[in-house]
Amino acid sequence: FILLNITNSSTQVSISGFNNSALFITYKHNSQSDAQASVVTIQNTVLDSFELGVIALIVLAAVLILGVLFKLGSQ
């Protein structure tokens, strides 16, 4: 019969036996799997429709300004 004393902390688990010899086990808990991390990364980097609309308006304004300057320069 072996009596174990098990204590838990956020970074390590300490298990000591009846002769006070200690066994330290460390572990890391990952709250997100690789697939969930990939989904979060994609959601944070993909442009939504509002951002695409703003970019389209900026490009349209630039094309309009360049067109007007070209027409004025060719007269």
Give an account of the 3D structure.
It is a single chain. The protein is an alpha+beta fold. Helix content is 51%, strand content 19%. The chain contains two helices and three strands. The chain has helices spanning 34-45, 49-74; strands spanning 5-8, 12-16, 22-26. Strand 2 (12-16) and strand 3 form a beta hairpin. The longest helix is centred in the C-terminal third of the chain and has 26 residues, at 49-74. The chain is rod-shaped and about 75 Å long. Keywords: Membrane, Transmembrane, Transmembrane helix. The chain crosses the membrane at residues 52-70.
Tell me the Rg in angstroms: 31 Å
Helical fraction equals 40-55%
Contiguous uncertain segments of 5+ residues: none
Q: Give helix and strand order, one letter per element, not per position.
A: EEEHH
Number of helices: 2
Q: What's the total number of strands? A: 3
Gross geometry: rod-shaped
User: Strand order across the biggest sheet?
Assistant: 1-2-3
Q: Proportion of β residues?
A: 15-25%
Briefly summarize what is shown:
This protein is an alpha+beta fold.
List the helices and strands and how they pair.
Layout: E1 5-8, E2 12-16, E3 22-26, H1 34-45, H2 49-74
Antiparallel strand pairs: 1-2, 2-3
Transmembrane segments: 52-70
Keywords: Membrane, Transmembrane, Transmembrane helix
